TrEMBL record:
Residues 187-309 form the Alcohol dehydrogenase-like C-terminal domain. It comes from the Bacteria. Pfam families: ADH_N, ADH_zinc_N. Keywords: Metal-binding, Oxidoreductase, Zinc. Residues 25-136 form the Alcohol dehydrogenase-like N-terminal domain. The lineage of its organism: Bacteria, Pseudomonadati, Pseudomonadota, Alphaproteobacteria, Hyphomicrobiales. This is Alcohol dehydrogenase. Gene3D superfamilies: Medium-chain alcohol dehydrogenases, catalytic domain, NAD(P)-binding Rossmann-like Domain. Belongs to the zinc-containing alcohol dehydrogenase family.
Amino acid sequence: MQQLNYIGTRDVQWRDVPTPVLPGSDGALVKPMVVSTCDMDGAVIQGAVPLKGPVPLGHEGVGEVLEVGPDVKGLKPGDRVIMPWKIACGHCTHCGRGHTAQCISVPREAAYGWAPTAPEWGGFLQDVVPVPWADTMLTALPAGMDPLKASGLGDNIPDGYRAIAPHIIERRGADVLVCGGTAPGSIGLFAVGFAKALGAGRVVYADHDTTRLAIAESYGAETWELSKSWLHGIRERFDITVDASGRPETVAELLRMTGRAGVCTSTTAAIYIGGDVPVPMFHMYRNSISLHTGWVHTHSVLPEPLALIQSGAFDPTPVTSRVVSWEDAADALIEPFTKLIVSRAD
């Protein structure tokens, strides 16, 4: 079968690989129909994050079930399903706590479209995807839902949601500051959209990129166009802050802009692979400020943003920069994007 791989900076290629077999009696085989990019895809392909190829691409999407094992109870061939980026069993201690990104039944890095285990599981930009523990891993696409709106639920939409929703519930009417800066930048924009949808007070999006600023403005956010000094010197305070900047220095700046008993979430910590990021610990302590980061527990979080999309309360469409055909995926991926969606004609 055909599988799209990252080879090196701005170099992606289709390769012939063996067609996967059913991964056990509780697994499934799925044909990807709509695949959206993760922010890490853009960072890696453009050379911002070092990664040795070849690596299969794609780990957000909607697919059609082709085959299920005899122990699968809730799915059948022909069902349309939302596919998550991380492999999770659903029954280990961590999964039982809802911490599915840290499932202990598989190696820590087990995921689609992600090194070093991607060669085992592949990516979603291929003809057939093996899915273990299918009843846990796959979420039925609600009848009538546009798969273009649902494909990002495999990773980046829940990532933006978790940066806002739990903290808004604790802090009704909270003021929110999201700082972007690193392309592609979809997670920070989703966070802005969820902040507005969930009834935040003042919502501010800061970035130097005019395209992303315009998207944030379309969600109803106030926008700040950043200068070379970024947030340095700004003395305003916010109940909830989100680091979507990919800039280590911004983490400390945001923490100092987080108000008393506030919370800051970093959604771009994968970019900080090069070294530790300093934080103003004593300032955080005396102001009761919390800092959150980590892989999003997609399987546990997904139902809530899915419900918001289904109800019309939240629309991810403004973040989508382009929808392309399966055949055009390789050419489209090497160009800059905010959120690229690849769709099969069949």
